[in-house]
Amino acid sequence: MPPGNAPARAPSRVAGWFDHHVFSFVASLGRMAAKPWAAGLTVGVMAVALALPLGLWATMANMERFVGDVQEARQIDLFLQPDVDAARAETLAAELRARGDVAAVELRTPDEGLQALRGASGLDEALEVIGANPLPFLLVVAPAGDEMALAEALRALPEADVVQHDAAWRERLDGWLRLGTRLAWVLAVLLGVGALLVVGNTVRLDIQQRREEISVLQQLGATDGFIRRPFLYLGTCYGVLAGSIALVVLTVVAWSLRPPLAALARSYGSDFMLQGFGPTQALVVVAGAGLLGWLGAGLVAGQTLRQTRSTET
Asked: Which residue among 77, 92, 104, 157 is least crowded, i.e. fewest CB within 10 A of its CB?
């Protein structure tokens, strides 16, 4: 037989599988475009459900970063005995730097302390009346581990006079941060279940409207996976759009809050800047939202199709 008269080769199973996936994806977009209001409401509800825990999680992450930037909160001020001279203060500072639980040690002389006190308090005349410098040597110790244990060790030094370390507020703040993080996870679970229900209900209504078409496909021998595939793509599209909108909303909120928060941080001597979601985090959020929509659509579509088959039999 001449090559020009050769029969056309049947498409492979892989090509047919790929074509049906493309058709299912395009069909799901067409169903969303055919009902813009219903699709918009579904996407909007999902976007709000995703934005709330994501916003709380981002807030907790920025708070932890801000607390980490304020290194002075962990510093321990070790005031030495008045009779400790400069040589002994230098030796003690070197001994502390060699400890494994100490990150850094700064030695401040009495003259440096007096200058700082004059600049901060405005009591120049009162300090002039005193005459001699009453301040001792000061070691500013930055802990590398447990600052509470290090503070107790510093108090036990024979050269130590006063050890100032107020970590109670930091412990309370850490507790609030842990509570906020746990609350973000709880909200994520609850609102994630809500998003599943929203997508599931939308898919269920779509299946009910196409019941006759689905019944014909089942009678022709179509598998549940073949029938369910367009609805899975529909749920995935809902999730991806909702995740993208949630990120856009949170980005706009972050941009609006960044200038006043930066000004507030500068008043505390910090260069803290509010950070949003990076490219990797945004991709994970969108992919997770799409997976959430796929899961909701798959659960409802599978259950509905099984009920349809059992009713017909």
From this structure: 104
Task: Give the residue from 169, 147, 59 showing the smallest Cα distance to 103.
Answer: 147
Task: Please state, in angstroms and rounded to a whole number, the distance separating the CA atoms of residues 22 and 11.
Answer: 15
pLDDT of the residue at 238: 86
Spell 247-257 as b/e; 16+ CB within 10 A means b: bebbeeebeee
pLDDT tens, residue by residue, 222-259: 666 677 788 888 888 888 998 899 999 988 888 888 88
Alpha carbon separation from 268 to 238, 255, 257 (Å, rounded) = 43, 21, 17
Q: How far is CA 266 from CA 65, 70, 75, 276, 291, in A?
A: 15, 12, 20, 19, 41
Position 146 pLDDT exceeds 80 = no
CA nearest to 60, candidates 174, 146, 171, 170: 174
Decide if 18 contacts 229 (C-beta within 8 A). Answer: no
* 25 pLDDT above the threshold of 90: no
Please determine, for residue 132, whether its predicted confidence score (pLDDT) is greater than 70: no
**76-80 and 102-108 beta bridge pairing:** unpaired
pLDDT confidence of residue 1: 45
pLDDT at 22 over 80: no
Residue from 115, 170, 114, 162 nearest 139 by CA: 162
CA distance 173 to 240: 35
Burial class for 112, CB neighbours closer than 10 Å (0-12, 13-18, 19+): middle
Interval 81-85 mean pLDDT = 86
**Sequence ranges of the domains in the chain:** 20-69+171-312, 82-158
Strands (E), the chain: 76-80, 102-108, 138-143, 160-164
